[in-house]
Specification:
The protein has 293 residues and is of the alpha+beta class. The chain has 3 domains: 13-41 and 142-205, FAD/NAD(P)-binding domain (3-Layer(bba) Sandwich), CATH 3.50.50.60; 47-132; 225-292, no CATH class. It contains 11 helices and 11 strands. The strands form 4 sheets. It has a 4-stranded antiparallel sheet. It has a 3-stranded mixed sheet with strand order 3-11-10. A two-stranded antiparallel ribbon has the order 1-2. The chain is globular, with a radius of gyration of 23 Å. Its cofactor is FAD. Residues 5-213 form the FAD-binding domain. It comes from Oncorhynchus mykiss.
Length: 293
């Protein structure tokens, strides 16, 4: 491998294995595009995000810090997460064309008065106007590819293999899991990279693609579905069934992230679809019984 130094010098390095952990716009992955039968897709969602700081009030958190705060508005949303310094990091996710309509400080206040009026006194009008224009709205990209390896010399991990939008909070965890899985396979196959790397691709590609899809879905759930009474009723049914059948019926978010189990992401998706069918059948039976009364 040839490395180009900042001063322009070239250095040739010999390695048993090149590990591409260089992010969503991976230079290593770009070289994979030269090989036959390498599949790759990159998708920018039509929404961007910007961040706004909610300061402490009298030295304490402005809101309860033990929750993920969400302002769902169907086609967009704002969330707030607590920081160690007792601020909240507020993130506004919204279509780019909506950001483009908010061009002045006065329009920022008008927008927040219409959609997030309770946030204005917590953030402060002047701070809100300042933070809104600090940086332009940033894009979000999702990457899928296959395979994750080239021969017995190179392998992709983390965002280089499966960059995802941030709505499931699993990007870093999925990258760490890549390391864990690769290490386990290396132990099983005695570090024979000609066998290790194809097995790593076989195991991880379905999971990398599944969590990328779950992250996309969760954005719709967070910004829109939570406003639906029917969706909230389904959640109630899920939670009730989980209480009486904790090993069989498990809420999707719990399966995929909260408990940090070793359950593979693509199996989570399969189980989720099965649970959805079970729930629909139960609701159908109950509605039929009520109609017969």
């Amino acid at each position: 491998m040839v490395c180009l130094r900042a001063e322009g010098a070239k250095e040739e390095i010999q390695a048993d294995l090149i590990v591409g952990c260089d992010g969503a716009f991976s230079a290593i992955r770009k070289q994979f595009l030269r090989q036959s039968r390498f599949n790759y897709s990159q998708t920018y969602i039509p929404h961007g995000y910007l961040e706004i700081t909610m300061p402490p009030i009298n030295g304490e958190f402005a809101m309860k810090p033990d929750y993920l705060h969400i302002w769902p508005r169907n086609t967009f949303m704002m969330i707030a997460l607590p920081n160690l310094d007792k601020t909240f990091n507020c993130t506004l996710f919204m279509p780019f064309e909506e950001f483009e309509k908010v061009t002045t400080g006065d329009k920022v206040i008008e927008f927040f008065q219409k959609y997030f009026p309770d946030a204005i006194p917590l953030i402060g009008a002047e701070a809100l106007k300042r933070d809104f224009f600090r940086l332009p709205a940033q894009a979000m990209v999702s990457v899928k590819c296959s395979s994750y390896h080239f021969g017995d010399k190179c392998v992709l991990m983390g965002d280089a293999a499966h960059a995802m939008v941030p709505f499931y909070g699993q990007g870093m965890n999925a990258g760490f899991e890549d390391c864990l899985v690769l290490n386990e396979i290396m132990d099983q196959l005695n570090e024979d990279f000609s066998a290790v790397l194809p097995e790593y691709t076989r195991v991880r590609v379905p999971d990398g693609q599944a969590i990328a899809d779950l992250a996309m879905y969760n954005y719709v759930e967070m910004r829109e579905h939570v406003n639906s009474k029917w969706f909230l009723f389904r959640k109630y049914v899920d939670n009730f069934l989980h209480i009486i059948m904790p090993r069989t019926i498990i809420p999707l978010y719990t399966m995929a992230s909260v408990t940090f189990t070793r359950t593979r992401y693509h199996k989570v998706v399969k189980h989720w679809h099965w649970q959805d069918k079970v729930r629909k059948d139960i609701v159908h039976v109950h509605s039929t019984l009520f109609k017969g009364l």
